[in-house]
User: Which sequence fits this backbone?
C-alpha cells in the first residue's frame, strides 16, 4: 500500500518538530544528531534492514539504512540531508508544522525533510511488500548540506554505489541533470596608508575596489550570463557581492579593501575561468591606476553538477513517474547548487529529484502534500526498476 497523505503528514510533522539546524551556519544550531536518532529508530523494526551511523564530526553522524539485494543488479543510494538552515525570522512557529490546504508548512518541511521522508517511506513500503531487490538499496541522510557539505564528502569517501539519487525539493515534473557550480571568493585590493592630506603618498584601496566592482557588474550583465557555450539549461550564472570591508578611519588613506563574492560556474566551466576573468579586470584597472595591486583568494570551490552515465536511472524515474503523474518528467538544469555536484565530481552517475515546495530558507517554508504522496510511489517504483527485482 502506498503511503497515505495522513501518514506522510504525520511523519513529516515529526521530522519538522525535531530541530536540526547546521551549526556551520548558525553557531548555536543543535545539529542533526536528534533527528538522525529519530530516523534510525523509525527504521529499526524493518526486517532485513541494517541501520548504522557514521560520525562525520563530534555529535554529527550520517545515517545509513541498507536493504541488501539478492545480487545481479546495480546498487542505488538515496541521499537526502538531515540539516536545515536557521529560523531566526520565524522563531515562533518554525518548529510547529501546520497544514494549510495542500501544503504543509514548517522549517525544513521541503528542504530537505520531505526527501528524508520519501526515502524512509519508500524503504518501508518495499520491505512490507516483501519486494526482493537484486541490487542493494541504501537510504542515507547526511549532515551539513546547508553548510560545508561535510556529510556528503564523508559519505563519498566510504561508499561507491552504482548510482545516487539526490533527493531535494524541485518539482516531480523536473529531473535535474545538471546545475551550476559556485565559488566563494575574496577579492583583496591593496593600497598604501598615508595621511589624508597626502595624495602623493596614499593609495586608495577602496576607490580601486570600486573600479573592480563596476567591471564585475558589467561582466555579470554581458558575459557570465551566457554560460559556457552561449546558452545553458542551468540559467543565468550566479553573481552577487556578499561582504565588503576596508579602511581604518576618516583621516587615513585605506591600505586595503576586501570584497567577498559568490560566483557561479556553468557545466563545462571551472572556477579558474572566473578567476581568470577577475584577473583580466585587475589588468584593466591597473592600466588606469598604475599603483593598483589585487589578489584573488578562493575560499570555497564547488564543481558544477555534470553527471555522466545516468541514463538508466533517468529512465527508471521517468518510466516510474509517467503512470503516477500522467505525464513524463523532463530533464532540466538549475542555477543553484546541491550535494549532487559532489556526487558527480566523484564519478558516480547521479540525478537530483524531489517535490514541489517554496519559501526555502525563509519563513513559512512549505511543501506540496499531493506531490509528496506521488513522490513516495514514484521513488519506490524507480528503485524497483533500477535495482531490479527477483
Ligand atoms: Zn536542500
Assistant:
Amino acid at each position: 500500500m502506498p503511503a497515505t497523505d495522513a501518514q506522510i503528514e504525520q511523519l513529516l510533522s515529526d521530522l519538522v518538530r525535531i530541530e536540526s539546524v547546521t551549526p556551520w551556519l548558525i553557531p548555536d544550531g543543535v545539529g542533526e544528531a536528534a533527528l538522525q536518532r529519530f530516523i534510525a529508530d523509525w527504521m529499526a523494526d524493518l526486517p532485513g534492514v541494517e541501520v548504522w551511523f557514521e560520525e562525520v564530526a563530534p555529535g554529527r553522524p550520517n545515517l545509513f539504512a541498507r536493504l541488501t539485494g539478492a545480487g545481479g543488479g546495480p546498487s542505488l543510494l538515496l541521499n537526502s540531508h538531515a540539516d536545515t538552515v536557521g529560523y531566526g525570522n520565524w522563531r515562533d512557529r518554525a518548529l510547529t508544522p501546520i497544514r494549510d490546504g495542500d501544503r504543509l508548512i514548517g522549517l525544513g518541511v521541503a528542504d530537505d525533510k520531505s526527501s528524508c521522508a520519501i526515502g524512509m517511506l519508500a524503504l518501508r513500503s518495499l520491505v512490507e511488500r516483501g519486494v526482493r531487490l537484486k541490487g542493494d538499496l541504501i537510504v542515507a541522510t547526511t549532515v551539513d548540506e546547508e553548510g560545508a557539505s561535510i556529510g556528503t564528502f564523508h559519505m563519498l569517501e566510504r561508499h561507491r554505489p552504482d548510482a545516487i539519487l539526490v533527493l531535494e525539493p524541485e518539482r516531480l515534473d523536473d529531473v535535474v541533470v545538471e546545475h551550476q557550480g559556485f565559488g566563494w571568493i575574496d577579492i583583496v585590493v591593496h593600497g598604501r596608508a598615508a595621511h589624508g592630506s597626502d595624495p602623493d603618498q596614499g593609495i586608495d584601496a577602496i576607490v580601486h575596489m570600486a573600479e573592480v566592482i563596476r567591471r564585475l557588474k558589467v561582466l555579470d550583465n554581458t558575459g557570465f550570463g551566457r554560460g559556457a557555450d552561449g546558452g545553458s539549461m542551468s540559467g543565468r550564472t550566479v553573481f552577487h557581492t556578499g561582504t565588503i570591508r576596508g579602511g581604518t578611519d576618516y583621516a587615513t588613506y585605506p591600505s586595503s579593501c576586501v570584497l567577498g563574492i559568490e560566483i557561479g560556474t556553468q557545466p563545462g566551466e571551472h572556477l579558474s575561468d572566473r578567476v581568470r576573468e577577475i584577473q583580466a579586470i585587475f589588468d584593466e584597472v591597473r592600466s588606469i591606476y598604475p599603483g593598483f595591486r589585487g589578489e584573488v583568494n578562493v575560499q570555497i570551490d564547488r564543481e558544477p553538477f555534470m553527471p555522466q552515465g545516468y541514463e538508466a536511472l533517468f529512465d527508471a524515474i521517468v518510466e516510474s513517474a509517467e503512470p503516477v503523474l500522467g505525464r513524463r518528467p523532463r530533464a532540466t538544469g538549475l542555477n543553484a547548487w546541491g550535494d549532487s555536484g559532489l556526487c558527480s565530481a566523484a564519478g558516480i552517475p547521479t540525478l537530483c529529484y524531489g517535490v514541489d515546495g517554496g519559501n526555502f530558507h525563509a519563513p513559512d517554508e512549505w511543501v506540496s502534500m499531493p506531490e509528496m504522496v506521488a513522490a513516495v510511489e514514484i521513488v519506490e517504483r524507480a528503485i524497483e526498476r533500477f535495482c531490479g527485482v527477483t
About this structure: The chain has two domains: 5-179+305-387, 181-302.
